[in-house]
Design goal:
The protein is α/β, with parallel strands linked by helices. The chain is about 30% helix and about 25% strand. The structure holds phosphoenolpyruvate and manganese (II) ion.
Length: about 625
């Protein structure tokens, strides 16, 4: 039941209500979010609406319509993010768990872990207790396997997940692993579910071979009912009449689970298909369908694997798949930590410095802006964030050390470079230390009930007006376009004015934060609308590999002057991914060249490249390698 409490209820009265609910066998949860004074109660004992309605302090009772309560979206309207050490499952990042079916020996597990980590897996999997169809097949190394997993965590910094097959293993699981997996065959082993509920570690709950989504969520409810809210669902295919694949991957479970429940969901295409060749297409589809992550079987030598070799990817294939996922993720508003080494660099040194607990990163505008999203997607929970009012204030704050990093848009795929920021990069002695690309989807937003015909003014950032040109053009006579500093501010101003004659263009998140309505969805001229954000700092992030560099240079006004620096890149086989010329302020008809290269030109071995570049340019600035 959802209980809406009487307005003005005091803390003491609420405390009495909670205890009385608990005395009647109910599990009580605050329904956080924006609604204060709302609690959820799931009862072991059968109680009807009247019982709750009569409790002191209760204004209204809304029954939860589904059989599962604590895991239902009604009980917890926001997405749950499960945290496993540094990894967040259910947020803006696609989390990839990879590793062999079973831990076979130390060498096999370590070799595979090094490979999957290299390609961007953020968690390691490997069975130590294997539920095998035949009693004569390899059954796993047992506790010795768990110890190897714990050593892998130490060595590679990857949290580890493994399956628990019996309640006897509870103590060892607690001791050695980060996430306890409940396998498909045990999804309805209720004693096991209650046991992992009590261990309290995050649980990866696989869907049973022939379980309905409702049964699956009921199993999650068992874990919750023991007080453990850290559940990750894993769709791994169900048994159907189809025999060309090992199981049938039910991708429709993703949007259904997302609607019914607040829990994160990952997909295991390996057990779903049973065939190596089918794993990548299904993994790509899962991400496109909205999965929060993937669990993939990878073996350094799958032909010799003791179990599930036929479905295990070769490390290189896994690398290729990660490249695809990296490209697909921004299309669905997410990000993959593809260059994991690079990212772990930023996280490893988040503490101490400047006497602060966490490093700080600044972005433009308020919460919900694309800059805020870019900041979250790059750093995750590893920094604290600060919102600043202008690009210059971000550069200043990084310069003075008030913040450690700044996140800035540098280029949009529809409208080109954001020159203001290039000018600041020239002016300030700071480095580009990272980049992140977001798909930018714009919506026309108004106060609830606003009709398109009523609109007289549209507020947004000028760049956004450009990106929505085709949508706005037919209305140029009725709608006055009002420029403001960022999209979140536009939405807030329209909310504050509260008039149906005003509308804003902004993101879905901004509309949600301000309780506003989307009048028209996806109004950017071209849906392939991406913005590339860069992260600036005083020093490059400590760890490599860095794969890209940005430079600015100018040449003398002479024939062949541009050819010479370009020839240096060509001779060294360095790929250029951007070349743009831009007028030098105050020097009519003279130009700077902005170049992005697929190489770390600041690494040892490239000194000669930089020296010859200096020779053939009259101004050169390396903006950073990242
Ligand atoms: C596994 O992930 O190792 C496994 C046995 O999977 P499932 O329970 O989905 O068959
Ligand atoms: Mn397996």
């Amino acid at each position: 039941m959802i209980l809406v409490l009487q307005e003005g209820i005091t803390r003491e009265e609420k405390g009495r209500l909670d205890s009385s609910l608990e005395d009647h066998g109910c599990i009580v949860r605050e329904i956080s979010t924006y609604q204060l004074g709302v609690v959820g109660a799931a009862g072991k004992a059968e109680k009807d609406v009247d019982f709750f309605q009569d409790l002191p302090g209760v204004e209204r009772v809304i029954p939860i319509s589904t059989s599962f309560k604590l895991v239902s979206r009604q009980m917890h309207p926001e997405d749950t993010v499960v945290r496993v050490r540094d990894v967040e499952i259910g947020g803006d990042r696609i989390v990839v768990v990879a590793g062999p079916c079973a831990v076979e020996n130390r060498e096999q597990a370590f070799t595979t872990a090094a490979e999957v980590r290299k390609y961007g897996a953020v968690m390691f999997r490997g069975g130590a207790f294997k539920p095998r169809t035949s009693p004569y097949s390899f059954q796993g190394l047992g506790v010795e396997g768990l110890q190897i997993l714990a050593d892998i965590r130490e060595e590679f910094g990857l949290p580890v997940v493994t399956e628990m097959t019996s309640t006897d293993q509870a103590e060892s699981m607690d001791k050695y692993v980060d996430v306890v997996q409940i396998g498909a065959r045990n999804m309805q082993n209720f004693e096991l579910l209650k046991c992992v509920g009590r261990i309290g570690k995050p649980v990866l709950l696989k869907r049973g071979l022939s379980a309905t989504i409702e049964e699956w969520l009921m199993s999650a409810e068992y874990i919750f009912s023991e007080g453990n809210d850290q559940v990750i669902l894993c769709e791994r295919g169900i048994r159907t009449f189809e025999r060309y694949t090992r199981n049938t991957l039910d991708l429709s479970a993703i949007p259904i689970v997302k609607e019914l429940s607040h829990l994160p969901i990952v997909v295991d295409p390996s057990h779903a298909t049973g065939m190596r060749k089918k794993v990548a297409p299904m993994a790509r589809s899962a991400v496109a369908a909205g999965a929060d992550g993937l669990m993939i079987e990878v073996h350094h030598d799958p032909d010799k694997a003791l179990s599930d070799g036929a479905q295990s990817l070769y490390p290189k294939q896994f690398g290729q798949l990660m490249r695809d996922i990296y490209v697909i993720s921004p299309v669905v508003g997410k990000q993959l930590d593809f260059a994991y080494d690079k990212k772990s660099g930023s996280s490893d040194e988040t503490c101490e410095e400047n006497g602060r607990e966490k490093k700080r990163a600044a972005f433009l505008g308020m919460e919900g802006t694309f800059s805020h999203k870019a900041c979250n997607q790059f750093f995750g929970n590893k920094v604290s964030t600060a919102s600043l009012p202008s690009f210059r204030s971000i550069f200043e704050a990084v310069k003075t050390g008030e913040v450690d990093y700044g996140v800035l848009p540098l280029e949009n795929s529809l409208t080109g470079s954001i020159h203001e920021n290039y000018d600041f990069l020239l002016e300030y002695d700071l480095k580009i230390v990272g980049e992140v690309t977001l798909r930018v989807k714009h919506h026309l937003i108004g106060i609830p009930g606003t009709k398109r015909e009523q609109i007289e003014r549209v507020l947004s950032h000028p760049q956004v007006f450009q990106q929505c040109r085709l949508f706005l053009e037919p209305h140029h006579e009725e709608w006055a376009l009002v420029s403001v500093t960022d999209t979140a501010k536009a939405v807030r101003l329209v909310r504050e004015a509260g008039k149906p004659t005003d509308a804003a263009i902004g993101s879905r998140e901004e509309a949600k934060i301000h309780d506003m309505e989307i009048i028209e969805e996806g109004i950017e001229t071209n849906p392939r609308n991406f913005t590339r954000f860069v992260v600036i700092g005083k020093e490059p992030l400590p760890k490599g590999p860095r794969s890209k560099s940005s430079l600015i240079f100018s040449t003398v006004n002479q024939s062949g002057a541009l050819y010479r620096p370009l020839k240096i890149f060509a001779d060294r086989g360095i790929n250029l991914v951007k070349l743009e010329s831009r007028p030098i302020p105050g020097k009519p008809w003279e130009y700077m060249f902005y170049v992005d290269l697929e190489e770390d030109v600041e690494s040892p071995g490239f000194e000669t490249v930089l020296l010859s570049l200096e020779e053939h340019t009259d101004y050169l600035k390396v903006l950073g390698s990242y």
